[in-house]
Each structure stands twice: as structure tokens, then as C-alpha cells.
Amino acid sequence: MHEALSEGIPYKVYTQLASASGLEKKELARYVVIPPASLQRRAKSGRFKLDEGDRLYRFAEVYKSAVDLFEGDNQRANKWLLNPVRGLGGHRPVDMISTSAGAEAVLDLIGRLEHGVFA
């Protein structure tokens, strides 16, 4: 995965991720902090820069974990990601994905929920 990120995640992966998550492309770009002008440039070049690809990877990792938490129910996973969560101090999981620390907090909470540890 490191090599793929270093080479630049292909733009088509972004479109597939938006489709799989049920988010509009602009919405996904906002959550992973890719400005509209940069998104247009990446669409033309066909690849994302390393830091952008890393944020897309974090989103994909959190999204997959949320879907797994809800046993494959994408709609419930989306609802959970887009609404404030008490275990994250009232923050929406999707808003925390822009940083590695935030994504780790979301993944940690998902792990605790999967194992029934709420405190």
C-alpha cells in the first residue's frame, strides 16, 4: 500500500470509493480535505498526491471498518459515520478522518464497540 500511495492513488479509486460509500464526490472530497480546484487538477492528471491519497486511504479504512461493525449494512454504517457519536465526544466520525489521530480514534472506537467495551 505504501508504494501505491507513493505513486499516487488513481483518480478512478476516488470515484469508486465515493460510489461505494454512497457519498457525492464533492462531499467525499470535503471530508478528506481536498479542495475543489485540487480535485479538478487530480481528475485531469489521473492521480492524487501522497498526502491526498493517504487521507483517501484513511477514509476507506474507516468506512470498511464501519461497514464491518454493522455486519455489511452500508446504510447503517453511513448513518453512523455522518452523525455525532458520544464515544467521540459528540463529533461525527466522518469529520475526524482528515487527520491520522482522528481516524485512529474512530478505528479505536469501532474496535471497542465490536468487543463490547464502551468505557
From TrEMBL:
Q: Which residue intervals define the domain Antitoxin Xre/MbcA/ParS-like toxin-binding in the entry?
A: 65-116
From what superkingdom does this record's organism come? Answer: Bacteria
The cross-references to InterPro entries, in alphabetical order and at most eight, read: Antitox_Xre, Xre-like_HTH, Xre/MbcA/ParS-like_toxin-bd
Pfam families named in the record: Xre-like-HTH, Xre_MbcA_ParS_C
Sequence ranges assigned to domain Antitoxin Xre-like helix-turn-helix in this UniProt record: 2-60
* Entry protein name: Antitoxin Xre/MbcA/ParS toxin-binding domain-containing protein
